[in-house]
Each structure stands twice: as C-alpha cells, then as structure tokens.
Amino acid sequence: MNRNEQTVNLPNILSVLRLCLGPVLIAIAYQDQATVYIVVLVFAFFLDLVDGPIARMSGHVTEAGSRMDSYADFSIYIAFLIGAVWLWPEIVQRELIFIMLVAASIVLPPLLGLVKFHKATSYHTWLVKLAVVCMAPAAIVLFIGGPPWPFHVATVVCVLAALEEITMTLLLHEPRSNVNHLLQALKLKRDSENS
Q1: 64, HSE (Cβ side, Cα atoms, 13 Å)
Q2: I want to staple 161 with a disulfide (CB 3.0 to 4.6 A). Which of 83, 125, 127, 144 is the partner?
Q3: What is the pTM of this model?
Q4: Who contacts 97 (Cβ-Cβ below 8 Å, separation ≥6)?
Q5: Residues 141 and 147: beta-carbon distance below 8 Å
Q6: Element (H or E) spanning 80, and its range?
C-alpha cells in the first residue's frame, strides 16, 4: 500500500474525531451545558479547519479520506442544529428562516448525491470552505448574544455553496471527490463526454 492509499493517518484520525464529536455535542446540549457546548463546537470547527491542509501537506489526500471528512462535517453540522434548538430556542425561533436555510444547505446537497449516485458526494468546493469559515464564527457570535447580521451573511454563503454543489451533482455523471468549483465540474463533464 503506498502512502496516499493509507487510511490510518493524521487527517483521517482528525475526521474520525470530528465524526465522534457530533454525538458528544448532542449529549452536551441535552445536558444543557451551553458553555461546554460552545468550547467543543469551536474545537470541532478548528479540527475541520486543519485536517484538509494537513492532508495536502502530508500527501494523504484520498477519496476515502475525503468521504470521511464529509461525514464528519455532516455530523458536526447536524449536531450544531440540534444543539442550537435545545440550548437557544428563543434565538432559533427568532432566526428560524435563516436556520432553516442553513439546514437545507447542509442536507439537500448530500441527499441529492445519494439519490442520483446512491453514494454521498464529497466535493469540498472552495465555496463550501468559505461557508464554513463564515458560519463557524457567525454562529458562535449569534449564540453568545452577538448581533445576527454575520449569521445572515454566512447563511447566504451557505445557500450559494449548496446551490453550487447541487448544480455540480446534476451535471456530473458519476460521484467525484475534491472538485473545487463549478467550472471544474463542467470540465469534468465535457472530458467524460469526449472520451
């Protein structure tokens, strides 16, 4: 097995840790521990921020690792939504439209991939990365009592990222990993049609 095919490596370990933090976050929220929840959520977002660069720098970018990262992302985002409902119901009620848009942007792209390909997609687009970078601090600011406008802006970025992923899924003939943007998906589609 060459180095790139190795499944036990630091980036994958970080993804598995994030995957496990999803249920931990839900348990913390169920125990009504808002401060601990925020700390663990920040840690999970930090791990998400570093696992990709570590994979690229160490030469461990694999399809399996990419899928594991996507599953971990989904685990954290769903735990974030459940935790928000339990810990900050008044904020969730006030921001319901934006939270529903975030939830849809998390659920619809992978759901469409499952329907079309019978397999989860793991594009890891630049726009999704921007959405995470915007949403993580904006959500934390919102839930610790800050202004809602950063969360609103981050929601727009999440929706745009989801629309890009949905478009890519509709265009591509097979599931692909690490497709950075829509133009790259269009090129992949043309290449597959020309071969």
Answers
A1: 10
A2: 127
A3: 0.84
A4: none
A5: yes
A6: helix 63-87
Phi, psi of 162 (to 5 degrees): -65, -45
pLDDT of residue 90: 96
Give SS3 for 146. Answer: coil
Give 101's contacts (C-beta < 8 A, 6+ positions apart).
155, 158, 159
Q: How far apart are CA 4 and CA 61, in angstroms?
A: 7
Distance of alpha carbon 122 from alpha carbon 178, whole angstroms: 7
Name the residue type at position 9. N
Burial class (CB in 10 A: 0-12, 13-18, 19+), 163: middle
- 47-86 tens-digit pLDDT: 988 887 888 888 877 877 888 888 888 899 899 999 999 9
**Residue 5 pLDDT:** 53
| Spatial separation of the C-alpha atoms in residues 79 and 166, rounded to whole Å | 22
Token representation of residue 60: 């461990």
60 within 8 A of 1, measured Cβ to Cβ: no
- Which tokens go with 148? 């809602």
| β partners of residue 122 | 177
pLDDT at 6: 63
Domain edges within the chain: 1-87, 89-195
